[in-house]
Amino acid sequence: MKRPIVYNNVKKYRVLMDMTQQELADKALVHRQTIVSIENKSYAPSIEVAYAISIAVGKDIKEVFYIKEEGDVSK
Amino acid sequence: MSLRVPRILKMFVSLVFVALFTFVVYNSFESGDNFRGIIFSAAIIVSAYVLIKDIVVAIKGNSLLNKEVVMDQFIIGRIKTSLSLSYLYLIVHLSISLYSSDSLAAFKDSATLALFISFLVFMLIQIFQAFIYHSRE
Predict the structure, then answer these.
(1) What is the ipTM of this complex?
(2) B73 to chain A: which residues are within 8 Å by CB?
C-alpha cells in the first residue's frame, strides 16, 4: 500500500481571488497561521477546515486539495 | 472548535502587553540591568511596529470590529506540543532532584528551578514553532 500525501492549491486560488491570508482565514474561520502552514505544506488540515477553505475560495474540495501517492509503506 | 474575538480587543490585549514590557524595560534600566533592558527594548520595538501596522491596516480596511479567530485546532496543537515538552522536562527534573536532594530545603529550591526552567522551555518551543511556521504575506 502506498502512503497518500495531500497537496493543495490554496495559495494559487487565494491569489487568483486577490485575497490576503488574513481575509481567507476570516472567511474560513481559522487562524492566519493555519493558512500559512497549509500553504507551506507543513500542516495537513482536518476535513472540516479543508471544506471551509474550499468554500471560501469558491472551488470544489478536489480542486483545492488533491492526493499523490508517494513511498511504499506496505512492507 | 475556534475562539473568535473582535480585532480591536485582540489589539488592546497586545497593547497592554507592550505597555507591561515597557515598564519592565524602564525598571531594568533603572536598576542597572542594561543587558535585560536592551533585549526587552528590541522586543518592544518589533512588537510595537507589528501592532501599529495591524492597527493601520484594520483602520484602512474598516475592520476594527470584525471578529478574528485567535484559537483553532492548529494553534491548540502548537500549545500542546510546547506543554508536553515542558511537562516532560519538569517530570525529569523533579524525578532527579527527588533522589538527589538530601533535605527538604534543597528539594524546594530544585522544584522552584524546575518550574522556572519548564516555563522557559515552553516559551522557547513556542518561539521555535513560530519560526518554523513563519511566512511573509
Answers:
(1) 0.79
(2) 34, 46, 49
